[in-house]
Design goal:
Largest sheet: 5 strands, antiparallel
Oligomer: single chain
Helix content: 55-70%
Shape: extended
Number of helices: 24
């Protein structure tokens, strides 16, 4: 519907100047940087957006010329995630550019209406924005005003598109002495009026990511001056400190973008996109067999479990009729005891047949828990009142039942109390029923925000029962089939599994001469996994403090991180050496004696790592690592 614009002289004058080329439908937005109109291009019959430089600014020749120059530069950018500019022109004193019209909403509008985005959606949008920035940087164009209002989310596809390249800086230059941009998303060097480059856009991208996940920018204030002062002087709060359901590595990447020093930020927008993708791609690269195992096949909670319980109970009743109560109870207990073991061995055997190993389950369960956290994040705080009430009812009713049941049993044994005890039985039974019902309801509410079920089965399969099941399944099955290379595996797991498969394919006499090599391989893998986990914790603790943080505690953490990294490299190197020597042994180019020498060295590496890890565990138990470091006063 065309608007008359009778109350807006600028609308009428601009439409008159564009007559025959563009038919303006309505004003789409207005701000200090210009007025945006939705229009239809007459000759091509397509919707376009026209951004007009305010006439009072267009009267200044230097600002007008720079506006046109930089708009023409931006018009040369052609990228799927950059809104294209069709024309840059000036007519009858009006300076404007015409860009494609994309139906949708800005990222800022989406966050205001729907709240923070999930980790997966946020990473997808941020990667698309980063690709657009990387392309622009390669063309020598720096955006200088990366913020949620300049990121458009297309309604039909969800695609993220960047708009307003170079425009904000041009307009700001005329009024702010070289300082341009939006205070909440402006880099420190930009706020100080220093020379900026592509790394300034990365700061804006980090602030935008912070806003997308947290629902607020990293710095806020009562005035633009206060926000700018905080941008320059205060370290940004670590994203992980806000308790947001995003992967730790993604939070660390956002924190790196918000570093005060440009050199401490990611090397490029392309590097940011690559690192952001890796934070969630590990979940997607899990093979289907592992995903099915952690979600269904590795759990005794299906219809078969209920049917088995019914069969065991029916069999026990039959035994009771034929042989007696004691034999029936033994049958029932044995059926319930051997069922989990039999199920675990069969499930492990199926997974081994597909080329996987017990060591694959830890990363698989962790990936499943990580993906579930962001889905449950939307439930945070929604049922807390109901949860607290159910928890209170469960505690009270359970406490009453624990006290009442022994009291009633004792009362029934005393003649003078038997009548009162019998009268209390219905109330106690009802209380027990309430305790059971409220307890189940409480577990259901907890499950809605925390995957208790997956956590339980993770502890089962990665613990002693899982280890026993895979060990027994491997012995029953014989040599494990060589599975394909899996991208979800850490380096130490891939090397260890490859070495173990090579060992198992050796002749029996050769395996005997090599001793208990599989046990050594398992110890090295386990040690390397613990070192890698420790390194990730240390790395997160160091990076969460910001590159400018300086303290004795932080230096100690950095030194320990270096030590752990060196030990991890040694463990992985020992596994690689054993694997290569096993390959040479298969090829006939190496002797058993040479391999035993390397095995001895690997034993020393494993023992040294175990001593270091044990010492670190003692220290951690005392200091409760990881601990928050006090920020250095500014």
């Amino acid at each position: 519907m065309l608007t008359t614009g009778a109350a807006d002289p600028l609308f009428l004058a601009f439409q008159l100047a564009l007559a025959g080329r563009y038919s303006i439908l309505r004003e789409a937005g207005r701000g200090g940087m210009g007025v945006v109109y939705l229009a239809r291009e007459v000759h091509l019959d397509r919707l376009v957006a026209i951004k007009l430089l305010p006439p009072e600014r267009a009267q200044r020749p230097e600002l007008r010329e720079r506006f046109l120059r930089e708009a023409r530069i931006a018009a040369k950018l052609s990228h799927p995630h950059i809104i294209p500019i069709h024309a840059v022109d000036q007519i009858d004193g009006f300076v404007f550019f015409v860009m494609a019209y994309v139906e949708g909403e800005t990222l800022a509008e989406r966050i205001r209406s729907r709240g923070p985005v999930s980790a997966s959606d946020g990473v997808r949008m941020l990667r698309e924005v980063a690709w657009a920035l990387a392309y622009a940087h390669a063309q020598g164009v720096v955006h200088r005003d990366v913020k949620p209002d300049n990121i458009l989310i297309e309604a039909s596809t969800g695609r993220a598109l960047v708009t307003d390249f170079g425009i904000a800086a041009v307009i700001g230059d005329g009024d702010a002495g070289g300082v341009s941009g939006t205070p909440e998303y402006m880099s420190p060097e930009q706020a100080l009026g220093c020379t900026i480059d592509a790394r300034s856009d990365l700061y804006g991208l980090g602030a935008t990511a912070f806003y997308a996940f947290a629902g607020r920018p990293p710095f806020e204030g009562r005035s633009a001056e206060e926000v700018l002062a905080r941008q320059v002087t205060e370290p940004a709060p670590p994203l992980a400190s806000l308790g947001i359901a995003v992967p730790r590595k993604l939070a660390t990447l956002v924190d790196q973008c918000l570093a005060k020093e440009p050199a401490s930020r990611p090397a490029s927008a392309e590097s940011f996109a690559e690192q952001a993708g890796r934070t969630i791609d590990a979940q997607r690269t899990l093979p289907a067999a592992l995903r099915a195992f952690v979600r269904r096949n590795g759990r005794m909670d299906g219809g078969g479990t209920l049917l088995y319980g019914t069969v065991v109970l029916t069999t026990s009743l039959g035994v009771s009729t034929l042989l007696g109560t004691r034999e029936a109870f033994a049958t029932f207990a044995a059926g319930l005891a051997f069922a989990p073991i039999g199920f675990a061995v069969l499930a492990a055997r199926r997974l081994l047949r597909l080329g996987f190993a017990h060591a694959d389950l830890g990363p698989a369960f962790r990936a499943e828990l990580e993906s579930g956290r962001e889905e449950r994040a939307v439930e945070r705080g929604r049922n807390r009142f109901f949860e607290s009430m159910v928890s209170w009812v469960a505690r009270v009713s359970t406490s009453f039942s624990v006290i009442a049941v022994p009291a009633i049993a004792l009362g029934l044994l005393l003649p003078d109390r038997a009548t009162a005890a019998a009268a209390a039985i219905p109330v106690t039974v009802a209380t027990i029923f309430v305790a059971i019902t409220s307890g189940l309801a409480y577990l259901a509410t907890v499950q809605s925000r925390r995957d208790v079920d997956t956590e339980f089965w993770s502890s089962v399969w990665t613990g002693r029962l899982g280890t026993f099941a895979f060990t027994l399944a491997r012995r029953l099955r014989g040599t494990q089939a060589v599975g394909p290379a899996m991208t979800h595996r850490a380096t130490e797991l891939s090397l260890g599994m490859a070495a173990e498969q090579l060992y198992e394919s050796l002749p029996k006499e050769t395996r005997r001469a090599l001793g208990d090599l599989p046990a050594l391989l398992e110890r090295l893998q386990h040690a390397a996994q613990r070192l890698r986990s420790r390194y990730d914790d240390l790395n997160a603790a160091v990076e969460s403090q910001g590159p400018s943080q300086a303290s004795d505690d932080l230096d100690a953490l950095r030194d320990e991180r270096t030590l752990v990294h060196d030990k991890l490299t040694g463990a992985v190197g020992a596994l690689e050496t054993i694997r290569l020597n096993l390959l040479r042994l298969h090829a006939g180019s190496a002797a058993v004696e040479g391999l035993t020498t390397h095995i001895g060295i690997a034993e020393e590496v494993s023992a040294e790592i175990e001593r270091m890890v044990a010492a670190q565990q003692d220290v951690d138990a005392t200091l409760r690592f990881p601990r928050a470091l006090e920020p250095t006063p500014v």
